[in-house]
Amino acid sequence: MLDLAYARDLVMTGVIFGAAAFVWAGWAHERPPKGALWRIILVLLQLVGLALMAWGIPLAVQHWSTPTALDPGSTAFVVYVVVFWLEVIAIVVLSVFFARTGRGALIAPLVLTIVGLHFVPLAFVFGQSIIMIAAILITAVGVAAAFLPQRIAAPSFWSGILAAPIFLLLGAIALVAGASALSA
Questions:
Q1: Cβ atoms within 10 A of the Cβ of 18, count?
Q2: From CA 159, how far away is CA 110, in angstroms rounded?
Q3: Residue 130 phi/psi, 5° resolution?
Q4: Exposure winner among 4, 72, 109, 182, fewest CB in 10 A?
Q5: What is the largest CA-CA distance in the chain?
Q6: pLDDT of the residue at 61
């Protein structure tokens, strides 16, 4: 499931997924269901995301010279950059379209779906099946969040409350595996 040859990439995956959990749980504060419990859960998800970043960033910096799938000038690096910019362009164009057509509430599920889809080619770039698992789960959550009841909570809440735990679990798995491989 994990290629330990690029342990630093796994650590960075954990860091990035921790940041993603923090951001999505933050966006979920837009309009959660009534009651303080949901806000407490969202803050806890954000804190766990920050903890992954706090553990992973120093570890990644300390091992920055170890092998990576993203050597500048490599095909993998070029694909990574192209996929990143295609994702950004798609998010901006479609978000503007949704906002102008009165469907602004659906921007969060749209963005989450695009984020999930962008993991598909990145799973091949990094050679990590855990990223493909993220692609499948995050894309499914993005699509589902668009259809969950808006009378209960905003689509951004559904996106965040469902995606943040996925990012945290997969991020923790990647970070633990990467950290173990780097210490071996």
A1: 28
A2: 9
A3: -65, -30
A4: 72
A5: 54
A6: 97
Read off the pTM: 0.95
pLDDT of residue 35: 93
Integer Cα distance of 125 and 68 in angstroms: 11
* Cα gap 138→145, rounded to integer Å: 10
Q: Average pLDDT over the chain, rounded to whole? A: 96
Q: How many domains does the chain have?
A: 1
170/141 Cα distance (integer angstroms): 15
Torsion of CA 37, 145, 124, 54, to 10 degrees: -20
Q: Token digits for 52?
A: 């992954």
Report the 3 state secondary structure along 15-31.
Answer: HHHHHHHHHHHHHHHHC
The number of angstroms, rounded, from the C-alpha of 88 to the middle of its chain's C-alpha atoms is: 14
> Is residue 23 a contact partner of residue 138, using CB atoms and an 8 Å limit?
no
* Cα radius of gyration (the chain): 17
Q: Is the backbone of residue 58 left (phi > 0), alpha (psi -120 to 50) or beta?
A: alpha
Give the span between the Cα atoms of 145 and 155, in whole angstroms: 6
